């Protein structure tokens, strides 16, 4: 398991895409982090645990990491 720290303006969807690379594992992310609702207001620096072995596309994940690209779509 790894720990991901959120950044400003991220939603739970952004965190899921940033970590797993797909929304297919959104329920797993929510369950493992004891999140009550997808409407959670994420504060910058919030820690999320996730399983790096379940990343949907390892190459895409590595590209995001290497390029310092962060998903942050909240208005």
Give a written overview of the molecule.
- This protein is an alpha+beta fold.
- Helices cover 32% and strands 11% of the residues.
- Strands 1-2 form a two-stranded antiparallel sheet.
- The chain has one domain.
Overall outline:
globular
End-to-end separation: 30 Å
Number of β-strand runs: 2
Report low-confidence residues grouped into runs of 5 or more.
Answer: none
Q: Percent of residues in helical segments?
A: 25-40%
What is the N-to-C succession of helices and strands? Answer: EHHEH
Largest sheet strand order: 1-2
Task: Quote the average pLDDT.
Answer: 89
Q: Please compute the radius of gyration using only Cα atoms.
A: 11 Å
Strand content: 5-15%
Mind summarizing the main beta sheet?
2 strands, antiparallel
Total domain count: 1
Number of separate helices: 3
Which class of secondary structure composition applies to the elements? alpha+beta
What's the structural blueprint in terms of helices and strands?
Blueprint: E1 2-5, H1 12-19, H2 26-32, E2 47-50, H3 58-66
Antiparallel strand pairs: 1-2
Question: Quick recap of the structure?
Answer:
The protein has 75 residues and is α+β, with helices and mostly antiparallel strands.
Which terms would index this structure?
75 residues, two-stranded antiparallel sheet, 32% helix, alpha+beta, 3 helices, single chain, 11% strand
């Amino acid at each position: 398991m790894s720990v991901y720290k959120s950044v400003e303006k991220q939603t739970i969807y952004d965190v899921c895409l940033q970590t797993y690379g797909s929304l297919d594992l959104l329920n797993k992310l929510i369950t493992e982090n004891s999140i009550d609702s997808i409407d959670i207001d994420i504060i910058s620096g919030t820690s999320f645990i996730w399983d790096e072995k379940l990343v949907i596309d390892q190459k895409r994940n590595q590209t995001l990491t290497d390029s310092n690209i962060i998903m942050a779509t909240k208005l």
